[in-house]
């Protein structure tokens, strides 16, 4: 699972996911990108499940880039615990994703296969995603 090696603070406040992604919103490395259409937290387990699907298809012919990293800690209190007595213990790590963010990029595969992969990735993630192509800059 992906997680930071060390962090300055163990616990973080939740924050808000307002607006669209201003960074990481264009295909920079590969030919195709998988773009988020909704805001959400994506857990390290969901990223790993998606990576397995993608690496299976891209393995021999192409290359894969993961453009998100779970760097936000999420805490959880034990079951049947009374209110109060502080914040819960760290449970898992999430990546904060806003609409427009490119989650994964790939190259070296045909477009039909890339569209199939985007659909499979959509089943693994809690948000709607779409396939975007690299824009040629002249």
Number of helices: 2
User: Could you spell the SSE succession in H and E letters?
Assistant: EEHEEEEHE
Please identify the structural class as seen in this structure. Answer: alpha+beta
- Whole-angstrom Rg: 17 Å
Shape: elongated
Give the biggest beta sheet: 4 strands, antiparallel
| Largest sheet strand order | 3-6-1-7
Distance between the termini: 39 Å
Q: Indicate the percent of residues in helices.
A: 10-25%
Question: What does the model show?
Answer:
- The protein has 138 residues and is α+β, with helices and mostly antiparallel strands.
- Helix content is 21%, strand content 28%.
- The chain contains 2 helices and 7 strands; from the N terminus they run ββαββββαβ.
- It has helices at residues 44-58, 111-124, and strands at 32-36, 40-43, 63-66, 72-76, 89-97, 102-107, 129-133.
- The chain has a 4-stranded antiparallel beta sheet with strand order 3-6-1-7, covered by helices on one side. The chain has a 3-stranded antiparallel beta sheet with strand order 2-5-4.
- The longest helix is centred in the middle third of the chain and has 15 residues, at 44-58.
- The chain is elongated and about 55 Å long.
């Amino acid at each position: 699972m992906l997680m930071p090696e060390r962090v300055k603070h163990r616990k973080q406040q939740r924050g808000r996911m307002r607006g669209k992604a201003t960074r990481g919103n264009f295909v920079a490395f590969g030919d195709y990108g998988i773009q988020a259409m909704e805001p959400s937290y994506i857990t390290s387990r969901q990223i790993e499940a998606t990576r397995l699907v993608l690496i299976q298809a891209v393995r021999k012919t192409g290359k894969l880039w993961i453009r998100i990293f779970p760097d936000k800690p999420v805490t959880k209190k034990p079951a049947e615990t009374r209110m109060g007595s502080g914040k819960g213990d760290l449970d898992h790590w999430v990546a904060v994703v806003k609409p427009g963010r490119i989650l994964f990029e790939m190259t070296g595969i045909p477009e039909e296969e890339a569209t199939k992969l985007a659909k499979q990735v959509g089943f693994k993630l809690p948000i709607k995603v779409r396939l975007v192509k690299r824009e040629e800059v002249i």
